[in-house]
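Researcher: Hi, I'm a grad student and pretty new to this. My advisor asked me to get structures for two proteins we've been looking at. I'm not sure of the right format, so I'll just paste the first sequence and hope you can take it from there.
Model: That works fine. Here's the first sequence with its structure tokens right after it:
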Amino acid sequence: MANDIEKQNAAAAAMEFVEEGMTIGLGTGSTAKFFVEMLADEIADGLIVRCIETSNQTRDLARSLGIPLIPFEQVDRIHLTVDGADEVGPGGVLIKGGGAALLREKIIANASDHMAVIADSSKEVPHIGAFPLPVEVTPFGYTITAKKVHDALTAAGVDRPRVELRKAPQSVDLLVTDGGNFIFDCHCGRIPDPAKAAAYLSAVPGVVEHGLFIGLARTVIIGEENGAHIIEY
């Protein structure tokens, strides 16, 4: 598939940022998976790094590939985090959380010296919001929180947002994140002012985290059929 080739090329380009002795944050999702697998190959060939995972899914993958993981509590510095994105907009603004790992992804990205985002070309967009914006919320009072999230997005300039609870894959049950929370998928169409939307969402009691990543990506790597395009911020 063309997208898989682009994802592989983006992941390969991200490997150029890996150095001996680093502590590396491992992202979650289909594109990040390619990076984790490539990193495992280098470790098998003698590369010495330590890693920290952004989700239980990535933890299980890394362990199966022999990648050394350390608990977050033992981390004093994260040199590099490589993760995917659901949308990459102007200025490196991201929507993340399609894999339900946005809380841990943002904690690790914020703690990193360098966040590199890898994505196929379909994820680069002229404005963000077509992909439903994930918002992680506490289960307590989530029905009230849903209305407040809707109101916050409306106040931030989103035209008629639709807020839906995410179901677990192939199930009628609600999805529960690794942190024990629920996720609202907020259908916005377009988010005209991401910074305002981020601020308004963060102010809602019950919102644990949202999928707007602003000012966190230092490098964006867009995979192409014959290589990758690298954007620095």
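Researcher: Oh nice, that was easy. Here's the second one.
Model: And its structure:
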Amino acid sequence: MKALVAGATGETGRRIVQELVKRQIPVKALVRDLDLGKQILPPEAELVVGDVLNSDSLTKAIADCTVLLCATGARPSLNPSGPYQVDYEGTKNLVNVAKTQGIEQFVLVSSLCVSQFFHPLNLFWLVLFWKKQAETYLQNSGLNYTIVRPGGLKNQDNSEPILMSSEDTLFEGSIPRQKVAQVCVDSLFNSEAHKQILEIVTKSEAVKG
């Protein structure tokens, strides 16, 4: 197994890279800025320069990989086309290249509530809407996939257990990015996660009881 991580310098992507390295899985990190990648990613990761909006760069990056984990996402900005370009067109490009390169599994980090068009987050240039369109494109691609929909993302890890549920059943809650990374990497080894949408948050034992 060799993994390509798209969005590797993002807060979630870098944790996915770290998790893969920790488990001694060879990993290529797709970065737009090589210097930034060198600063924040583990030295064991192979850095490859590319952009999800440039399919040619993706073909070179993905060449010797067997699995792909996508943690890209449009950063909040005043550019109304950001979510359309990054969350939809960028993911589409990754899916198309993954198909031509025989990728065995495509793990996509999406978001809770993508099916709710009138969710407040869609005020940010329809970000959830475009994530949902990317999910649908991946589902219809013929690739083996796992779609991970986390709740609100936290940089600080915690000891709360993960609550995992099926499509469109969780609508609130949060989860540390570290745990999202663990679920993404776990899905590479769990056939029950194939062709599934996993919704995840953390819940304290007190809440559970």
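Researcher: Is there anything I should tell my advisor about the second?
Model: You could mention this: The chain has a mean pLDDT of 95.
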